[in-house]
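My current task is to audit a protein record that another person submitted. I need someone to confirm that the token line plausibly describes how this chain folds. Take the sequence as given and treat only the tokens as open to question. This is what I was given:
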Amino acid sequence: MTVIDLYYIEDDSGIASCVKEYLESRGFRVTVYATLERARQALKVCLPGLVLLDWNMPDGRGDGLCQWIRRRWRELPIMFLTVRGDSGDIVSGFENGADDYVVKPFELEVLHSRILALLRRAGNETEPYLSCGGIIIDQNRRTVSCQTEEISLSSMEYQLLLYLMKHKGMTVSRETLLEQIWDINGSYVNNNTLTVTVKRLRDKLRQPECLKTVRSVGYRMEDVR
């Protein structure tokens, strides 16, 4: 079973700790951010499967971050968890891009059920976004961005990056890459073609630390901590 990453943007450490502990006991991986800016910087590097967002934060309002996310990643699920329960606030939350809205206080079991329902509606199993080290692939639009700036790649460069991203954390041999990207499409090329394609890809992505060369074996994408 794939572990789904959740970003929880909440400045109340008590609530954040309680939600994090409960959801991680249900198989999620939860990262808490106490300010909007920290969350924004984290989103530029790696996208989670879902964002849980409070409205009132020390450095601004959650609806602003919700709008910022929605302009960049239309299909990233967002759920408000907030004490603001007036009908006007709830309507505003949805108008600003939220997919769901939960008012505090809430039962953890109900929150868990709402999260599962939202992920089902979002079609989470299709993984619309793949990310690593500031590089994000939108599989539905077939676009690639680096630190939120869209990068133009050739077909082979895109397929190479996509294959490595889908196998993030694994070392992929040069032979496998040649077979899965070129041979399978009827284009039989040699090792030099792969080397040149990787070099061009690195140049376009500004020499990313997350794209590793495994000497005499192949390549690996891995998150940079």
Remarks:
- The mean pLDDT is 91.
- Residues 108-122 form the longest helix (15 residues).
- The helical segments are 13-25, 36-45, 62-72, 87-95, 108-122, 155-166, 174-182, 191-204.
